[in-house]
Specification:
The protein is mainly β and 365 residues long. It has one domain: Beta Barrel (Porin), CATH 2.40.160. It has three helices and 16 strands. Strand 11 and strand 12 form a beta hairpin. It is globular and about 65 Å long.
Length: 365
């Protein structure tokens, strides 16, 4: 029942918002949406996009010994886009993962196939589309940053509205389709940011995540239904444009809450806590610190350190080289939790992106 209610609310939001988007579209965009021909300055185009990254992510956690591992490999993505006009885009491609030393060579090859609508205020995605840049703002307590290695795509829907006072985004992502052997799992959530004064430093951000984990069909023994989720609300100050010493400077404080239940075993168990963070960047160097104090959280796709009652993580990053569309970054992460103040993880990542390159153009009718 929860799944049906959540899906109904989300689909209703998309339907109403899409209709509202049509009303909000400016005159120039409306012409593009309602006419069958394309203007001379915006012909139909075909483009190609190639990007990816190589990574070495070494997790050495004394506090989480069973989770110690080294993640290393490459993600390579290529897709072709068909653009009938400046608002509508149809993308098809593949995103493949190779882990160093792994066999077969490509451990997984995730299909990329989605429709995208984008104007000055609205974005809509439907299909299998990249997570990067859309949901990577989530705190690691809710969505672990290792998802980009093993689940680079969202498989579902996303709708976002942007304005001068901030943005709001709703999304749903199917993790697993229910079969006789596979569980029915999906993630859904909302995130947004409100700036009461667009020229000021103060803002309010929020992140909500819900996961439904149902059993197989027919239901197998020892396959209980689980519901899981969490939320954060943060008050922030972005002082980047208020001072000249640093390239970026921001602070956030807020609250976190989570809930988890196994329907056949126990009702919702709730947790709550305090979060704080700061970010500072100067030229090629940056520091990002996140602090949590509160009750243990159990969020399936969240960072496992948040089962601790107190936890701090400091990321020290250095952009070793930036050349055109290539960037190499070293990051050292210092983890402090009860009894384990000296956990360390290291990451080296090379990111490359040629951008979208037009390969063909078709004259309008």
């Amino acid at each position: 029942m929860i799944k049906k209610i959540y899906l109904f609310v989300f689909v209703s939001l998309i339907t109403v918002s899409a209709a509202f988007a049509q009303l909000k579209t400016n005159t120039r965009d409306t012409v593009r949406l309602t006419t069958t021909s394309h203007t001379a300055d915006k012909p139909t185009t075909l483009d190609i996009h190639f990007n990816g990254f190589a990574f070495l992510d070494d997790h050495e956690y004394d506090a989480l010994v069973p989770l110690r591992k080294t993640i290393s490999g490459t993600r390579t993505a290529v897709d072709v886009g068909f653009n009938p006009d400046s608002l509508n885009h149809f993308i098809v491609g593949v995103n493949a993962l190779h882990e160093f030393g792994g066999k077969p060579y490509f451990l997984t090859a995730n299909p990329v196939a989605y429709y995208n609508f984008a104007n000055a205020n609205w974005m809509f995605y439907a299909g299998e589309f990249p997570r990067q840049g859309l949901l990577t703002q989530y705190p690691r307590a809710l969505l672990n940053d290792t998802l980009i290695y093993y689940r680079p795509n969202v498989e579902g829907l996303l709708l976002s509205n942007h304005g001068k006072h901030g943005y709001e985004t709703g999304w749903i992502d199917w993790v697993s389709r229910q079969t006789a052997t596979e569980r029915n799992q999906f993630l859904a959530g909302f995130l947004g940011k409100l700036m009461p004064d667009p020229t000021g430093s103060f803002y309010v951000s929020h992140f909500v995540l819900f996961m439904h984990d149902a059993g197989t069909k027919p239901l197998q023994p020892n396959s209980p239904i689980e519901d899981n989720g969490g939320a954060q609300v943060r008050l922030g100050l972005d002082l980047t444009h208020k001072q000249t010493l640093f390239d970026s400077l921001s602070f956030e404080v807020g609250a976190m809450a989570s809930a988890h239940r196994v329907r056949s075993e126990f009702n919702f168990i709730y947790s709550k806590g305090f979060v704080a963070s700061f970010y500072v960047a100067y030229k090629a160097f940056s520091l990002y610190d996140e602090f949590y104090r509160g009750q243990p959280n159990y969020i399936i796709y969240g960072d496992p350190f948040y089962v601790k009652t107190i936890y701090n993580r400091l990321d020290a990053s250095y952009n070793a080289f930036v050349y055109k569309r290539l960037k190499g970054t070293f990051m050292f992460s210092f983890h402090q939790s009860p009894g384990h103040p000296g956990d360390l993880s290291e990451v080296f990542r090379v990111v490359y992106d040629i951008g979208r390159v037009k390969i063909a153009q078709f004259a309008g009718n």
